[in-house]
Amino acid sequence: MWLTEFDTPVLPRESVHEDARRAGDPRGLALKLRGVAKSFGARHVLKDLDLAIAPGEFVALVGRSGCGKSTLLRLIAGLDTPTAGLVEAGTADERRLMFQDARLLPWKRVVDNVALGLAGPEASARAMEALGQVGLAGRGGDWPSTLSGGQRQRVALARALVHRPRLLLLDEPLGALDALTRLEMHRLIEQLWRRHGFTALLVTHDVAEAVALADRVLLVDRGGIALDAAVSLPRPRSRAAPGFAELEDRVLRHIVGHAPTAA
Ligand SMILES: Nc1ncnc2c1ncn2[C@@H]1O[C@H](COP(=O)(O)OP(=O)(O)OP(=O)(O)O)[C@@H](O)[C@H]1O
């Protein structure tokens, strides 16, 4: 059984994350975007976009290819600046990014990849702890080339977690993985989110993935947020659960119903 490793919840349902949210003192970062526009020359990708995300929320961005999801994520990550408007998303230290490609340094062992950017005598111990949290305890001494694609993405996740981010930005992190590995990663990301209480923003092409993981699914279209769908299904979510397919279908219909953004 490939899912058993992550089948047991790390925490009971009353997680630290939910306690923190209730207490109004979450570790997650609040995001606020007001009147945000982004153009590349004459190509107006985002137009007057407003968005508020509460601390500790898990939000997914979906939409047609080229609609501006990654552009929006990059603005929030501070990797690019808006043409107009305001982006409030904490400091660079509070944010971490994960991409489709794990971007590991092949000449460094796994533990040293995770410890990159950490200083002090505890760096290795913290990296090993983070590797344990992603199910890779014992692989720290290995070379990245000896890992599977899914394991590399786990290392990338550990490399983000080791900095104890308040905001985790995920740009199609599971896009290159097979279906079963994706399901394992969904479970893992959800458990880590519940345990650590960070705010999560996931860009994905996979509407089912968005519904499985997010509190809110946002559809980016025509330069703005065309749909903001709350997902209140109990966690961990099964695609067979009542309401799952209906919500997935609703979001898909919205995507199909909107014309492609002018490219
Ligand atoms: N640096 C850039 N220079 C010029 N155009 C850009 C740049 N970055 C993005 N674009 C354009 O902005 C639009 C939105 O791109 P973006 O990557 O945000 O879309 P996306 O929704 O993430 O797409 P996909 O789902 O295919 O990854 C596209 O038309 C793209 O060509």
Automatic annotation (TrEMBL):
Q: In its keyword annotation, does this UniProt entry include Membrane?
A: yes
Q: Which Pfam families match?
A: ABC_tran
GO molecular-function annotation terms? ATP binding; ATP hydrolysis activity
**Which SMART domains does this entry report, sorted A to Z?**
AAA
Q: Sorted alphabetically, which keywords does the UniProt record give?
A: ATP-binding, Cell membrane, Membrane, Nucleotide-binding, Translocase, Transport
Chain ranges of the ABC transporter domain: 31-247
Membrane-spanning residues = none
Q: Gene3D superfamilies, alphabetically?
A: P-loop containing nucleotide triphosphate hydrolases
The family database entries (PANTHER family) matched by this protein are listed as:
ALIPHATIC SULFONATES IMPORT ATP-BINDING PROTEIN SSUB, TAURINE IMPORT ATP-BINDING PROTEIN-RELATED
Q: Which family does it belong to?
A: Belongs to the ABC transporter superfamily.
Instruction: Give the protein's recorded name.
Output: ATP-binding cassette domain-containing protein
Q: What species is given as this protein's source?
A: Pelomonas aquatica
Output the lineage of the source organism: Bacteria, Pseudomonadati, Pseudomonadota, Betaproteobacteria, Burkholderiales
